[in-house]
Amino acid sequence: MSERPSPGPLVRRTPRALTADDRPVRLPHAEFDGPEARFLGEPVARDLLPPEAADVWEACDGTRPYRSWPSPQRELIGRWHAAGLVVAVPPPRAAPSRAPVVLSPHPDDAQLALGGLLARCGGRVVDVFSHETWTRRPYYQSRPALSSRLLLAEERVACGVLGVGLTVLGHTDAADRAAWRENFFLEPDAEDAAAAGEPELFGRVTADLAAEVSGADLVLVPLGVGGHVDHVLTRRAALELLVRGELEPGRVAFYEDMPYSLFADARAVAGRLPAGLRPVLVPGPEEAALTKQEALWPYRLQVLEAVTRRIVRYGRGLGAAGFAERLWALPESAEAVAELASAGPAC
């Protein structure tokens, strides 16, 4: 008896339909073995990914608008989108006047926290600890090399949806470092030991970030809510650059790590950082919220769909008139952050 396809990975409840000018992008989790296909390690029904549709599948690379395909192919791509096999990249926007650089401890952190801002304003994401193998999916737990490749592929797709640049620094995730493999979350009184415990790594991260933030108008740094050691190290490296004068306070603001800020007090963390940090809501149109949700869908190996939906709901509850995300500004960067917050639909 042949193995029955599992519907588990192919259920997506998305409020966003493909529009004529969207550019479909296939997700990287499909594997093909002759006429058989798997997605996230599960078999896919042949009528959804038939062998004769291979050329259409390969052409879903973000370069071609949905309207350009003939009607039968549009119908098939629409089914792929509804099933979660492809995501929609919105049409290109005008070049932003102020594009931030977001320091992301891992692939997905910048998008989870600031996907709406990035969708609206563009910018560049700098992934620091980007060599990862951890996944919650058993199929990939036994395939660490594949997991590592796919985690970066997920990040590239998400950045494509948001229309932002990506720099990958390649440092190893805490879950794969001997010092933190068993527990990579720090209590507040242990955060000072993070850099001291891995001085050579901290030095390399700090040097890499110095090069990446040079010339940036605004650098957005994780607060370190939740105490993940990689988030703390990224924040401390940015603070080290402030102390050295390699990064000016007027160019720095902090963002609330997600999903940790759903459960922990970002205000308390901000209170332990440089004096004078003040919260600033950065609102965005509903389209930014929908684009953020679309950009979070590719993260299938580590992030639960329920978590991404809760993050978007949290953003909708932050703003008085709709969706928002929150930054924490230094006194010197307050004006630049206020300009970002008050900009129109496109920064």
Please give a structural write-up.
Helices cover 38% and strands 14% of the residues. A seven-stranded mixed beta sheet has the order 8-7-6-9-10-12-11, with helices on both faces. Strands 2-3-4 form a three-stranded antiparallel beta sheet, with no helix packed on it. Strands 1-5 form a two-stranded antiparallel ribbon. The protein starts with 22 loop residues before the first strand and ends in a 5-residue tail after the last helix. The model is unreliable at 1-8 (pLDDT under 50). The chain has 347 residues and is an alpha/beta fold. α5 packs antiparallel against α10 (286-296) and α10 runs antiparallel to α11. The protein has twelve helices and twelve strands. The radius of gyration is 20 Å and the shape is globular.
Indicate the structural class: alpha/beta
DSSP strand tally: 12
Query: What average pLDDT do the residues reach?
Result: 92
N-to-C span: 57 Å
Compressed to H and E, one letter per element, the order equals EEEEHHEEHEHHEHHEHEHEHHEH
Low-confidence segments, ≥5 residues, pLDDT <50?
1-8
Widest beta sheet: strand line-up: 8-7-6-9-10-12-11
Please give the count of helices: 12
> How is the main sheet built?
7 strands, mixed
How big is the Rg?
20 Å
- What percent of residues are in strands? 5-15%
* Shape, principal axes of CA atoms: globular
Helix content: 25-40%
